[in-house]
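Fold Annotation — chain and its backbone

Encoding — discrete vocabulary of local shapes
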Amino acid sequence: MLKNYLKVAFRNLINNRIYSLINIGGLSVGVATFLLILLWVADELSYDRYHTNADNVYRSIVEWHVGDQEVAYPTTPAPFADFAQDNIPEIENTTRYNLISQSLFTYEDVPYQEESGAYADPATLEMFSFEFQEGDPTTALDEPNSVILSQTLADKYFGSESALGKTLRLNNQHELAVTGVYEDMPKNSHLRFSYLLPFELFLQHHNIGDDNWNDYNHYTYLQLQEGISAEVISDKIMASFRKRFPESTDNIYLQPLTEIHLYSNFDLDASGKGDIRYVYIFSAVAIFILLIACINFTNLATARSIKRAKEIGLRKSIGAIKRQLVGQFLGEALLYTVIAIAIAVLLAELVLPVYNDLAQKQISLQLLDVRLIGALLIITLITSLAAGLYPALFISSFSPTKALKGTFKAGSKGVFLRKGLVVLQFTLSIILIVGTLVIDDQINFIQNKKLGYNKEHVLVVPMSGEIYEVVNTFKTALESNPNILNITSASQNLTNIGSSTSGADWAGKAEDQTILLNQLSVDLDFIETFQIEMAEGRAFSRERSADSTAFILNEEAVKQMGVENPVGMAFSAHGVEGTVIGVAEDFNFQSVHQAIAPLVLFVSPDWRSNLYIKIDHQNIAEATAEVESVWQEINPAYPFEYQFLDESFNTLYQNEVRTGDLFNYFAFIAIFISCLGLFGLAAYTAELRTKEVGVRKVLGASVSSILLLFSRDYIKLVVIAFLIATPLAYYLMHQWLADFAYRTNISLLVFVLAIAFALLITLLTVGYQSVKAATANPVDSLRSE
């Protein structure tokens, strides 16, 4: 019996090559896409779960309440870790780390500028899973003058030699002994350190005392005892904290390690953040695409069922029962699905390198992984049942008498189902089209939004080494070059000003009034270099020595302070008393996900970390080479590194750009699969109506009238799909845009383009078969009559 079923199934597959190709092709592309998206989702959900203690490790989050503002940061003061462990017995271990944006390591007189490092407590190596290749993790960070390296850095410096005991010079100041080498941290980790230095070295270098509670710049992680509730520990921490600081209004809570990547909204995080909403979105897209592929299978199977009416009638007349017929056709569906999934796995493997490059992942297909095998089996079973069950029940219900007489006609139920599935198919496709257009609009809006300053052709050069002492010499050497238009400096990257203060004071301030001011130390040329417009007053000036204690506020700061005439007002911050000399128009200094916040600019030469060099856009290469030449002459011990400010700005939206690109591809795949199914249905319809078309042509019907005859039913279905998809797509994209403080509007044009595109591809797909049928010789179609 089984052998006969397989023989019939293979015979049908071979005899109906075009039908089989469309069915298997659409299903394989759908399953391959479904599989790739699931791999992406699994990778996003896997972040930080490889740590042995992942379920018991939490990060401390501080919520600041300043006036009506509430701001959360994932950083705490340095003493907080010991304070928590000393007061809460359920806390098993604590560690702190402080990010290092760049360090200069020198080995055998060869300098290496390195990024992505951190100062960390020894407990870091106990709480997190580091795979050591050399050294002892229990003692590797005990000594202040030690360093542990990733395998990549160790190979870079020492080649095949052992790294242990080797000496590296840090920033031309400290001699450090290499005490350990660990495997490079996995990509699915929010912590990606290429080297670690003892936290004790940080405390010594920055002269921070053991009881400094004012420096909120350190990440703190707590490891709780097994089975202890994080909410309970948070309450205990707050009780102890309130006892220690009764006047504080801050709140502290614990964030699970495994939620940091997907549930964080902190610009200070160590690596590119994920977003749980995108996990939901792409999971839904995966289901959409698989569903569209299954709809194709079901539609084509039910449509072609009439062709097999005589076969079913004959089988029933010789004693075949319904269960056997259902088994036969479910078996055929299973065969098609197995072949499609085998091709899908091959397609996914072939596409993976390009997909990884697009999604910035390192995903691989582990074909022997039990979870992957289980997932493929489940997909096979569900897809076979979803795609084959109704056709099997529909076909096995044929009347044998009518089938053998050739008088069997498809019932309205089968036609209604096919139309309903086409509507569903195009509803999902139109939602994806609208989503793609809206995401593209928002990305273009972000990238072209007027920020309030000129970011074009600005070199951002991190200050390091001797440049701090000779910065004026450096600027003087470059100012005479006609390719260098302006030079200034600031304490932070202009695309992400994260430093803030609640301690500012000003004339007329109410006793109970407090606002959180973002703060940026700048050079006197800052306003001019970035062409920031002044709403009131003036910019800093080199001609006025008093400007060393002057302040400039932005419009949002003035608004929240409630001041009517700020220019000339007494103002003080971080121990400096001066006056407000101007009000700058609001400009974006953070991601456009956030509204422009209050900001104060002041001049402090000691607070500088980046040089900003405005260059002539007509001689970019020449100007950059000149800057590098002067740098190497003045600061030869430190490599010259730079980035263009607009590039730094674009990195803020990498996630959105990648999402947009992926959406474009997924929408194309969904439309392609839909068109494939529509093509098959149109071809089959044309085949069934061959004689009707012949009669119409003999009676004088034109090609255009036959084209309209074939197309209008499908156009009606697409219009119905559009009416259903429009409110759904609008709601979903409105929810996505709500995360942006500054966003584009969902215009009517988006929906016009969506329906126009859907109709166009429908006409092209159906029209091909219609024209083919309409231009055929009617003699050939009527010859058998």
About this structure: The mean pLDDT is 84.
